Amino acid sequence: MRQGREQKVKIAVGLSGGVDSSVSLALLQNQGHDVFGLTMKIWDGSIKIEEGAKHACYGPGEAEDIEVCTRIAKRLDVPYKVIDLSAEYNHTVIDYFRSEYEQGRTPNPCVKCNHTMKFGFLLEKARALGLEFDRFATGHYANIETINDIPYLKVAIDSKKDQTYFLYRLSNETLNIVLFPLGGLTKAQTRDLATKYGLEVADKPESQDFVAGGDYTVLFDKVTSGDIVDENGKKLGEHNGIIHYTIGQRKGLGIGSSIPYYVKEIDADNNRIIVTRLPEHLLKTELTAQNAFLKPYVSSNPIYAKIRYNHIPACVEYIHLNNDNKMTIEFTDPERSVTPGQAVVLYQDGYVIGGGDII
Fold first, then answer.
1. CATH architecture under which domain 228-277 falls
2. For 140-171, what is each residue's pLDDT tens digit?
3. Which of 10, 207, 293, 319 minimizes the number of CB atoms within 10 Å of its CB?
4. What CATH number was assigned to the domain covering residues 2-196?
């Protein structure tokens, strides 16, 4: 992989206060590179979130994470810079998150944040402030490989930690300067290295939530209740806001029934949740994605699609990309719970060859 054969260069390393980014910094320094830490500050306190809530990407715990990054940088004796991107984050990620839910779609803030913030505004603002670097590295579990002069994301060695789904929108220009030092490591190996380097985050638990505490209703000014209806429009109960539901959801519907119901559709125009008792009604043979792209195929082998992060990739029968960047994808076998707002990511031989936003 390209990451392992770099000559000595100046590398900005995105730090979050977690074990993955900290080990990436230490690894690159140990390889002899000129490194410094870089953190984007996204929390400005404008939204009320309880202090002490479980850590997440967005919330008051960010201050503690920055303190950890400061200590890590000091221990490794490398420069460290915090860049305030809270205004950009509120406009780009929080507003997007609200808008998607209010329109009955299920947003994917991790894809949005990586594409527009971490690999976008952060690098732009760092350079605007006069910070110079040749490469940008993060603690993501992913690889990059160039084929016929085109850089491709490639899945990480640790399939359980692979994060190419969240990174699929990175442009060729960005991929040409990015390094993922952990792409060839397992999570266990990363923690072992953290211990080896004497990093205080070696045993730090992972943060999985988007908003501190896990309750993202705090992001909305008003959440309105409405009807839960069956496929014929018969009222079965009431929901506590469409933002709490997603396609295929079974638990937490609040419908008294010995036979489970599943969310089939989110009708934002009428503030309704439409449910079905028939799981087969959640199956679809195709989907349409917007803002889509498709790279040259890397082989003649089958193409697989992931329609959400933890989805087992589904074999694709047909792909067509229109001039308006809308893509039609047909599956070999019907897929369950295709969810508008989520990303569809296409893989061939473990390489990311395309994707888009499901509509």
1. Roll (2.30)
2. 999 999 999 999 999 999 999 999 999 999 99
3. 10
4. 3.40.50.620
